[in-house]
Write a structure and sequence with these properties.
Chain lengths: 357, 357
């Protein structure tokens, strides 16, 4: 429960792959009316459905503000643990701790600097405290990383390989004072990785500056899934093709070539006028205009113990995505959650969850 | 972590004596300016001193509101765990859970109804949620008791005996619809006790309607300490004498007579004009007027693992109280905390702590 003046690498801790065993999953309750339409009521239902889906596979803890405590308690299944926590928004993938483990099963947390995805949502003072609050509740020791980073911008295979995008990690809205080499050094120390695979850009118009977790993820060591489109006129085609080429040319920390599985994206979706009108338009927050394209992707799923909780969009590609994930994770049960209301807030199921090994 | 539809007695759980081993201690950070003078800053220093004193003997967790989170973190020793929690005031003895244990070392909590000591401090909606929030954080199962009760109004010996006052438990401001017999039945079920010893009144002008924990407490089974005054003109004399007589006439659940140790109270203290002027005077809160007598007592101490953390008042009786407690607890180290700032808020060290077995 103390702040450790060292690094996970020095102490023999590593970030495990998401597909490794979990003690549970953390989430935060959606609330802010300048990001979630209609007082976040539709999003709260989607989050509750997601929590219930994950809770089939592992314990779920929901951080809930003072004002929403009783409502969340009411809307969530009784076996979801509700703890009080303040936040600015509900993306615990990004503001929560990155858990690391050692060979003896000890667990610690990395607390990154957080600046709300390059400062696009003001304020972020409460989000910046979430990691340490989670670690205090779980009585886990904490490393403070001197790097602005969100959990959604990293994926590891647990065997020394890290996947990131240049669009995000080298973006001047995060760590303009640091060179690529210095950023790599911090990532190696904090996650205990050897090989960093740099893709170029994230999903088209993803407001996170291209988080990896909407573009590409590990199925297991040596095997990744990549969002894809066959439509060459869609700007996403070029992005996914470039990522595919880089992945095929790369090797992981163990010297393996990657097996890359494409998952065709949903049809391009845009915000409707009705959806836009349900959101407070206030200064300091990214506008949600009618007609804006949403960064839809099936890659933004959560890997639970014995299960996959994935977003669907009432889209013709839903079925193929479900089938592919079932094939890639033959021992896990696939649960799909209608996720448009989460996507409207700027992310998806992976973004609103944080596994605790 | 679920709500249990049974009672501790039926399930083989009992409330242990405070002198039995603890896993730790819970506290809440003082804040409300209509009870604590000067924005609660002097009280916060006294609470921090108390937390540091207890943390010498056992882990301490401090519940802190969103607004005070960073300040409390700064004012408290690093090894005190800080978790976010809302509250109306900071008396976790009264609004927190009463922990119960079984022979196998399992721990659960009783969540009483809470109405702010008979409705004298408005509002109390957040205090009423504290017990369940604590139990969720600790992942402990919860019994909901259908009785308005504060933890400060009960003391047990862990062997079947309960000490209470009629002034508090039979007060129409708590459970006017219940007979004494019905109240006793609920206490037997929730605490797993056989013998309930009823004293008459609590300490003179104690705003809690006479909580037992300011008047009399168990040192160990068969042995109690009682606040006392030799001054026959002090209304406290008659109260303490009556309690003494009742205790000497009573037997405990094992048929033992009580050994009663008197601890002379501090000299009567009153609120100064300066102290009164530092407190917001708002409707719904008990006024703190200059000249009002404070319910000072040395009995309101906390029994920690291997230690006693007790209040002192820069009073001529301090030394004798310290000596008596050291004699009564020969194996525990006595730590005294200057506690006038806590007393000004209406209670003392026992009232602001809650042991977790």
């Amino acid at each position: 429960m103390t702040l450790i003046n060292s690094t996970p690498r020095k102490d023999g801790f590593r970030m495990p792959g998401e597909f490794e065993p979990h003690a549970g999953c953390w989430m935060l309750w959606p609330e802010r009316p300048d990001n979630w339409r209609l007082g976040a009521k539709p999003a709260q239902r989607a989050f509750a459905t997601t929590a219930a889906a994950i809770a089939q596979f592992e314990p779920v803890t929901m951080g809930v503000s003072r004002g929403q405590f009783l409502n969340a308690r009411q809307m969530l299944p009784a076996h979801v643990r509700v703890v009080e926590m303040s936040y600015d928004d509900s993306w615990i993938r990004d503001c929560g701790p990155t858990f690391v483990i050692n060979d003896k099963g000890a667990v610690r947390g990395v607390d990154w600097d957080f600046n709300a995805w390059g400062g696009i949502y003001f304020p972020w003072d409460q989000d910046a405290l979430v990691a340490r609050k989670v670690l205090k509740i779980e009585r886990l020791d904490r490393y403070k990383a001197d790097l602005v980073l969100e959990g959604g911008s990293i994926h590891v295979d647990g065997e020394g390989t890290l996947l990131v995008t240049e669009e995000c990690l080298l973006n001047p809205n995060r760590n303009p004072q640091l060179t690529k080499e210095k950023i790599e050094e911090t990532l190696r120390e904090c996650l205990n990785v050897e090989q960093i695979v740099w893709l170029d850009r994230g999903v088209c118009l993803d407001e996170t500056s291209g988080h990896i977790d909407n573009l590409c993820c590990f199925v297991r060591p040596g095997v990744v899934a990549l969002t894809w489109t066959d439509d060459r006129s869609d700007p996403q085609h070029e992005i996914s093709l470039d990522a595919y080429d880089r992945l095929r040319a790369a090797t992981d920390a163990r010297g393996r070539k990657f097996e890359v599985h494409k998952i065709h994206q949903p049809e391009p979706m845009t915000i409707t006028k009705e959806e836009s009108e349900g959101i407070d338009a206030v200064e300091g927050t990214l506008p949600r205009r009618a007609g804006d394209r949403l960064a839809g992707s099936y890659i933004n799923f959560y890997t639970a113990n014995d299960g996959i909780v994935m977003p669907t969009f009432d889209d013709p590609h839903d079925g193929a995505a479900i089938e592919t994930l079932q094939r890639l994770f033959p021992k896990r049960r696939i649960v799909d959650v209608p996720a448009r209301e989460i996507l409207l807030g700027g992310g998806n199921i992976h973004c609103i969850t944080q596994q605790q090994p």
